[in-house]
Amino acid sequence: MPIYEQTNNKRGIVGAIVAGALSGLVTTVLFWAVVQPLLEMSEVPDVTGKKVEIAKSILEGRGFRVYTEDPISDATVPDGAVAKQDPVPGGKVRKGSTVKVWPNGAAGAVPMLKNLPLPQATVVLQQAGLKLGQVTMQPSDSVAKDAVIASNPPFGMQVSKDAPVDLIISAGAGEVTVPAVKGWGRTRATEMIKQAGLAVGAVRYQYDESGELEPGVVMRQDPPAGAKAAKGANVTIWISTDVEPE
Question: Do 88 and 113 lie in a common domain?
């Protein structure tokens, strides 16, 4: 047999060996890159509604890590049980992944606090397992001064334990501008005062020494025209008379 033919055969054998080795390497790489991760995937069990300690035991037993988030409010599950989880139940994730759970910490509904004085409303919140949040003052024509108008979250909403509840407190009736009624008759002055959101207080009569005003018209008023007064406040007027005091 010629020498060059033996050389070619040897080269072919070496090439085949190298090709086989490369093929095996590629197969191994593909296995570890694609197949192996799939084999390590596991279905996330449903732990909602279970106590957090039990849920952690189940998840860790399946090879997952567990992270407990801050409590949320969910009236459909018992207090202290898992209200939410991520990934969701049935999802496929790699073993060793972290599953987040949110325990239910509902304290119940925000109590009805409307028209309660602020100190009393604060006590009621504490008794409900909540705490006072931010207090905002707002004028109100229907709620007494320093009493609760509304809350955030609203009355009746389910909230977590120790959740802050912001309150809007009445600052009393809003301020309005006192109209100028001097020189007007009593009837017209009364209408102007009421239209401004105020009320007519005392009506007094005073002799006009100057003689400049006709009898029966307003010669003085308190508060004065242009002043700011609480809505609904009284305005006292003095009506001129030509009857001299005895």
Answer: no
Q: How many domains does the chain have?
A: 4
Q: Structure pTM?
A: 0.45
CA dihedral of 184, 187, 190, 195, whole degrees rounded to 10: -90
Is-cis flag, bond preceding 87, omega within 30?
A: yes
Could you read off the pLDDT tens digit of each residue along the chain, which spans 246 residues? 555 455 555 566 656 665 665 666 655 555 455 555 455 788 999 999 999 999 999 999 999 999 999 888 777 888 889 999 999 999 889 888 999 999 987 667 899 999 999 999 999 999 988 999 999 999 888 899 899 999 999 999 878 778 899 999 998 888 899 999 999 999 999 999 999 999 999 999 999 888 788 899 999 999 999 998 888 889 999 999 988 776
- 89 with 77, same domain: the answer is yes
Of the candidates 103, 174, 116, which has an alpha carbon nearest to the alpha carbon of residue 147?
116
